[in-house]
Amino acid sequence: MTTSTFYNRSAERAILQGAANSPKAELLIVYGRRGVGKSALLDAALTETGIPFVYYRATRRTQNIQMEALTAAVRDAFPDAFLAQPIADFATFLEFLAHRAGEQEAAGGPPVIAVIDELPYMADVDPGLLTVVQHWWDANKRRPNLKLFLAGSYVAFMERQVLDSNAPLYNRRTGAMKLEPMDYAEAALFFPDYTPQQKMEAYAILGGVPSYLEQFDSTKSIEHNVKSTVLRRNTYLSEEPDWLLLEDLRRDTVYGSILRVIARGERKPSDIARAIGKKSAQDVTSQMDHLRELGLVLREVPITEARQSRSRNSLYWIADPYLDFWYRFVDPAQSLIARGLGDRLWEQTIAPAFQQHISRPIFERACRQYLWRALTADTLPHDLLFTDIGTWWGASDKEIDIVAVDSHSKVVALGSCKWTNAPVDVSEYAAMLKDVALAAPDLGIDAASVGRSDGPWLLMFSRSGFTERLTQLADPQANCRLILVPLDAMYVSS
Q1: Which residues pair with 175 in a beta bridge?
Q2: Strands (E), 267-387
Q3: How many helices and strands in the chain, by DSSP H and E?
Q4: Would the CA dihedral through 435, 440, 445, 448 be positive or negative?
């Protein structure tokens, strides 16, 4: 299913519209991974201003073909402009913008706005393009009604060639926006007909990339959507992982293999290397670093080691929920899907393991996202203030799902996330107290203070709610600093 509705991104829209209407020249960089919604955001935000603008989305074509298409985009934005011949090169295009800006400024007209989307494709065929932009901007940056937005999906290119301190546009840009995937609550806006549990299930499959979220129909069940959009050949979602590898990773078989073994549960670099047939972690270091740069893989360490440059406790996860789902369940079974047996794959493989898949890491990540949202919305106790949220694990399988620390690295809250069928009871609370007490020396907290009014806040998240006994224990009058967050409460503000 596709939709024309633009969900969320209100803060980002305001920034872009502010740049379009600002009293100075603007050179704004917008970037983020493929499918995250950059093009839709730019189009929606600038269209809402009511100001005509040039929008050109570059493609993998020769420079002559690119210039013909760019000329067409200019004529579409400015029908009164006389362009007898196609624009010869990008420098000529920029000079046209400057000349047009001068004319409109003299006539008291609106600013001249241009968007160049997928900038790396243009740079591929015109290696000097960024230097051309640099010189042009230096000559025109004092023209207040000139606004240029440069966007790209190849994150590594945008960060190294456009934003880096050695790049031609360093110190020229007036702003830079990296567009990230939506969080669990923002993604839920795509599914107004779903229950909170279905919204979390959809997030566990699709994550927060808008182009993925648009593929599901919230009037249909999760099972129906997965079968029709993922477990079927030649659909957008079924082809997307291969396109990512083709476009960003040049179809190097090592990358796909790394993602496959991480999805199935290999977490340590040495284990990942051995699982794909390499001798040691050193053999996959460059690929792991590249996957992290692209935002496809994330490295997690205990929060107590977060400020250390190195840690032997590093664990690796697939950052994008859809890729995690695809590499865990779909990639190993592509032969079944090719033979039209996607329904059987769902029933015999995916459905039995799906709820466990949600439990970790998806639900835990969503709980941490909720805490940031709650802090911003000022719905947490006033003395619960943190600057970082993570997780923690130690020897003897000790583990805490959520650990929040303040600016002095002091632990101010600890949490447990339960994606279970039954309501969480006092016994789970007692188990959390025991785990926290065991971890207290490593976390730097007084074990005797856990559960008391002078100790850190304790939080419990539950898919199925809480028993009456535990709810009574969380009453403010009980002074145990316990906060219970049922699943439906996580969606109240969304």
Answers
A1: 28
A2: 297-300, 315-318
A3: 22, 12
A4: positive
The answer on pLDDT for 23 being more than 90 is yes
CA gap 467, 478 in Å, rounded: 16
Read off the DSSP letter of residue 250: T
Specify the length of the chain in residues.
494
Q: Are strands 315-318 and 297-300 parallel, antiparallel or unpaired?
A: antiparallel
- Residue ranges in 346-425 assigned as alpha helix (H): 351-357, 364-377
333-365 tens-digit pLDDT? 999 999 999 999 999 999 999 999 999 999 999
Nearest-angstrom CA–CA distance, 354 and 223: 11
In the block, tokens 């042009």 appear at: 136
Q: Check residue 450 and give its pLDDT.
A: 85
Cα–Cα distance, 33 to 155 (Å, whole number): 6
What pLDDT is recorded for position 94? 97
What is the reported pTM? 0.90
Task: Judge whether 264 and 328 are in contact, CB under 8 Å.
Answer: yes
Residue 162: in which H helix or E strand, if any? none
DSSP single-letter state for residue 1: -
Ramachandran class of 330: left when φ > 0, alpha when ψ lies in -120 to 50, beta otherwise: alpha
> In whole angstroms, what is the distance from residue 305 CA to residue 473 CA?
33
- What is the pLDDT, as a whole number, of residue 494? 53
User: Could you tell me the two tokens for 386?
Assistant: 């943190």
**Residue-wise pLDDT tens digits, 144-183:** 999 999 999 888 889 999 999 999 999 999 999 999 999 9
How do 399-405 and 411-418 pair as beta strands?
antiparallel
Place of tokens 């923690």: 392
- Candidates 405, 323, 324; CA nearest to 359 is 324
Q: CA 36 to CA 135: how far, in whole Å? A: 31
Q: Give the Cα separation of 235 and 224 in Å (integer).
A: 14
Torsional sign, CA 324, 462, 183, 188:
positive
What is the Cα–Cα distance from 56 to 68, expressed in whole angstroms?
11
Closest CA to 264 of 201, 341, 313, 330: 330
β-pair partners for 117? 57
pLDDT digits (tens, 9 = 90+) for 443-470: 999 988 887 888 899 999 999 999 999 9
